[in-house]
Amino acid sequence: MKNQTKYKHIIWDWNGTLINDAWLFVELMNQELETRNLPLISVSDYRAKFTFPVKRYYENLGFNFEKENFEKVGLAFINKFKKRNKEPDLYENTYEVLNKIHSLGINQSIVSAQENNLLNETVRFYKLNSFFKNVAGIGHYYADDKISLAKDIRKKISCDNKEILVIGDSVHDYEVAKSLSVDCVLFSNGHYAKKRLLKCNCDIIDNHLELLDYLS
């Protein structure tokens, strides 16, 4: 099918955008909070409080990094996550939408704050790797430097800025799009509550099928 949209390349976020995993982040974080006698959180709390850099999110939950090391805390969390990261489901219609975009001849990539090897392993597990030209995560487990990573991937994409669309679920994904001077659409049922996304100057969708309106 011929691509009649202006977009020639879509850059996806992963966690909370293609895969419905906020609940798992909450379960694992509550284990860490409980051992420190800190208040537990719900998914709603998480979507209201999660932020980048991740260290700030931990501090907002009550972690004291004058008394313990952030890198050690973060690595302990990731080790638990790696044991369960294949439990979440893809969002409803994820495969359908990726396949439709592929059929239109639009290239796709993933740029994620997840560690690169873990990200690629997970994308292969869900049998989505054939849809993507690039699957790029960061070089460590501390979920920062996504903008630099996105700029590196941008160099591999031979399109004008106006032909690239970033799709994510956080204010940081909007910041990534702004840093690339490309369009952005944010998904409201991921890791950020919708009211937090409304301050971003971009369109917001509640369902992945709504993306097809941008490509018709």
In short, what is this structure?
40% of the residues lie in helices and 16% in strands.
C-alpha-based Rg, rounded: 17 Å
What is the number of E strands?
8
The average pLDDT score comes to: 94
| Helix-strand topology string | EEHHHHEHEHEHEHEHE
- Biggest sheet details: 6 strands, parallel
| Strand percentage | 15-25%
Distinct helical segment count: 9
Q: What is the overall shape?
A: globular
What is the CATH homology-level superfamily of the largest domain?
HAD superfamily/HAD-like
Helix content: 25-40%
- Order of strands, main sheet, comes to 5-4-1-6-7-8
Structure description:
Helix 1 packs across helix 4 and helix 7 runs parallel beside helix 8 (171-180). This protein folds into two domains: 9-20 and 89-215, 3-Layer(aba) Sandwich (Rossmann fold); 22-84. The protein has 216 residues and is an alpha/beta fold. The longest helix is centred in the middle third of the chain and has 15 residues, at 70-84. Strands 5-4-1-6-7-8 form a six-stranded parallel beta sheet, with helices on both faces. It has a two-stranded antiparallel sheet with strand order 2-3. The protein is globular and about 50 Å long. The model has no long low-confidence stretch (mean pLDDT 94). The chain contains nine helices and eight strands. Helix 9 (194-197) links the parallel strand 7 and strand 8 (203-205).
